[in-house]
Design a protein that fits this description.
Layout: E1 2-4, H1 10-24, H2 30-35, H3 37-43, E2 48-53, E3 60-67, E4 70-76, E5 85-94, E6 101-109
Antiparallel strand pairs: 1-2, 2-3, 3-4, 5-6
Length: about 110
């Protein structure tokens, strides 16, 4: 279930943020991420965040941060496979209204 971030989600979201960055950016020293941990922890609750809560475990296993209609980041816990999901298609182009780069992604649920 996807829902709006609540303050009690912060510890879980921060662990997903930290481990996601450590895994995704092995070329950056771990001390960079751990050194910015408290700053990000203070800033995240001010952002527009949505979390994915596993309906079976009631644990948060991912989150997304938004600014208006722009995705700032998507994080998912490494041990949580995309159970029942797969990426279907992605297309790139130019938005006709804004002349900005546009990427459209379609996700489908596997049976």
């Amino acid at each position: 279930m996807i829902r709006k971030f609540e303050s009690q989600d912060l510890d879980a979201v921060m662990q997903i943020w930290l481990h996601g960055n450590l895994d995704a950016h092995p070329f950056i020293q771990a001390s960079f991420w751990t050194g910015h941990f408290e700053t990000v922890r203070d800033m995240l609750p001010q952002a527009e965040l949505y979390v994915h809560e596993n309906e079976d475990t009631q644990q948060i296993d991912g989150f997304i941060g938004l600014t208006e209609n722009h995705i700032e980041g998507i994080f998912r816990c490494k041990s949580c496979a995309f159970q029942g999901h797969r990426q279907g298609t992605a297309s790139e182009g130019i938005d006709e209204d804004t002349n900005e780069a546009e990427i459209q992604m379609l996700w489908t649920r596997q049976a």
